[in-house]
Write a structure and sequence with these properties.
By secondary structure, the chain is mostly beta strands. The protein contains 2 helices and 25 strands. The protein folds into 3 domains: about 100 residues, no CATH class; about 100 residues, Immunoglobulin-like (Sandwich), CATH 2.60.40.10; about 100 residues, Jelly Rolls (Sandwich), CATH 2.60.120.380. Strands 1, 2, 3, 4, 5 and 6 form a 6-stranded antiparallel sheet that branches. The structure holds calcium ion (2 copies). The site of one calcium ion has 8 residues, from loops.
C-alpha cells in the first residue's frame, strides 16, 4: 500500500516539475528615435516587463503560441500606461524561453523596455539677435563733473528701443543702481537723472542694450561696460573748491571788492583764475596767503589779459600787490601751485579796492 502511494505521489510531482530553457536572445529593436538634445521627453519607467506564454502538450503538440502582442499588452498594463499620453518604448529587448514539464511545455516570450513620455516643447520663434550698441560718451575711464551726465551710443539698425543700466563701481557685475525705461528707437543718448545721486570721487559704469521687437529681432547683448569717475570739480579736485572750474580767463570766477575768500589748489593741474571789476578808477590791493607749507604764486593780469605782476618763487609767505585799475575794466588774478597743491589746506585771497587813489 505504501509503495502504491509512493508511485502516485512521484507521478504527481513529476507532472509539475521540469526544466527551463532560454534562447538567450536579446535583440534590441530600432524603435522610436529620441533626440536627447531637445529635452522633449521624460523617463516614465525603467525596465518594464511583459510576458506571454504558449502551451505544448507533450512538448510537441501546440495548443497555444506565445505572442508578441500579448507580451506588449502585458508590459503596458504592468507599467500602468494610459492611452491619454504620448508614450514610447526605448531600449526594447525580447527573450524567448521554454519551461519543460513531463506532459507539456510552456513556451515563454519576455519583452523588456524603458518607457518614455513625450512632453510639449515650447517653440520659440527664430529671431535675429541685434548687434550691441557702442558707447560713445563720456569716454571710458574718463571724468565727468556733472551729476547729470549725458550718455550716448551708436545707433543700431532695426532696434525698437534702448535700455540703459547704471552701476556703482567700475564694472557692471553688481545689481544696477539705476535702469532706464525703454527709450524710443530713435534715441541714442540718455541723461542720467539727478536722483541717481552721484557722489564726488566715485566711479560709475554703464551699459546699453538694443531692444528687439520680440518676433523677428531679439535683444542685443549688453554693450561693453564703460566707466567714468564723477568729480564735483574738474582737474581732479575732490571737494568743493571756490569758483571751480576756473582754470582759464574765460572761466575766471568773479570776486567783489573788499572781500576775503578761501580756495584750494587741489591738484597738480589746478590753477585758479579770478576776475575783479572796479566801479571806479584807483587801485586794488590783492593779498594771497598760501598754506604754511606751500609755495603758491600770485599773478595779476590787466583787462587785455597781459601779465602785470608775478610773485617770485621760494617763499612761503603772503604775496601782496597793489595795481592801478581803470573804472569798469576787468582785472584778473591767477593763483598757481607751482607743482605743489593740497586737497585739505586752503589759501586765502583778499581784495581791497581803493577808489580815487
Ligand atoms: Ca582751485
Ligand atoms: Ca581752478
Amino acid at each position: 500500500m505504501k509503495r502504491k502511494y509512493f508511485i502516485i505521489c512521484t507521478l504527481i510531482f513529476l507532472l509539475f516539475i521540469g526544466c527551463s530553457t532560454g534562447t538567450g536572445r536579446y535583440p534590441t529593436r530600432a524603435g522610436t528615435q529620441v533626440d536627447l538634445s531637445r529635452k522633449n521627453y521624460r523617463m516614465v519607467k525603467v525596465n518594464a516587463i511583459g510576458v506571454s506564454y504558449g502551451f505544448r502538450l507533450l512538448g510537441i503538440i501546440p495548443f497555444a503560441s506565445r505572442r508578441h502582442t500579448e507580451a506588449m499588452s502585458d508590459l503596458y498594463e504592468k507599467a500602468g500606461l494610459s492611452d491619454e499620453k504620448a508614450f514610447a518604448l526605448i531600449n526594447v529587448a525580447d527573450e524567448e524561453s521554454t519551461i519543460y514539464l513531463i506532459l507539456f511545455s510552456l513556451p515563454k516570450l519576455t519583452v523588456r523596455a524603458d518607457v518614455i513620455e513625450f512632453i510639449d516643447e515650447v517653440t520659440k520663434p527664430e529671431c535675429t539677435v541685434l548687434p550691441s550698441p557702442n558707447s560713445l560718451s563720456p569716454s571710458c575711464d574718463g571724468i565727468v563733473s556733472t551729476t547729470t551726465p549725458t550718455l550716448s551710443w551708436s545707433s543700431v539698425d532695426n532696434a525698437s528701443g534702448y535700455v540703459v543700466k547704471i552701476f556703482s563701481g567700475s564694472n557692471c557685475s553688481e545689481a544696477p543702481i539705476h535702469t532706464s525705461t525703454q527709450l524710443s528707437a530713435n534715441t541714442t543718448s540718455y541723461v542720467i537723472p539727478n536722483s541717481v545721486g552721484f557722489q564726488s570721487g566715485q566711479t560709475y559704469a554703464w551699459q546699453v542694450q538694443a531692444k528687439g521687437n520680440g518676433t523677428t529681432y531679439c535683444d542685443s547683448n549688453w554693450s561693453n561696460c564703460c566707466s567714468f569717475t564723477f568729480r564735483s570739480v574738474s582737474r581732479g579736485c575732490t571737494d568743493e573748491d571756490l569758483g571751480e572750474p576756473n582754470n582759464s580767463f574765460d572761466s575766471a570766477y568773479p570776486l567783489g571788492c573788499n572781500s576775503s575768500y578761501t580756495a584750494k589748489i587741489c591738484s597738480s593741474t589746478d590753477e585758479d583764475y579770478y576776475r575783479v571789476v572796479s566801479s571806479a578808477s584807483g587801485t586794488i590791493t590783492v593779498k594771497m596767503t598760501p598754506p604754511t607749507d606751500k609755495n603758491y604764486e600770485l599773478q595779476i593780469y590787466n583787462s587785455s589779459q597781459q601779465q602785470i605782476y608775478s610773485s617770485q618763487r621760494g617763499t612761503y609767505v603772503q604775496k601782496v600787490r597793489i595795481v592801478s585799475v581803470t573804472e569798469g575794466k576787468p582785472y584778473y588774478i591767477r593763483v598757481i601751485g607751482d607743482s605743489s597743491f593740497s586737497t585739505a589746506s586752503t589759501y586765502n585771497l583778499e581784495v581791497v579796492c581803493s577808489i580815487g587813489d
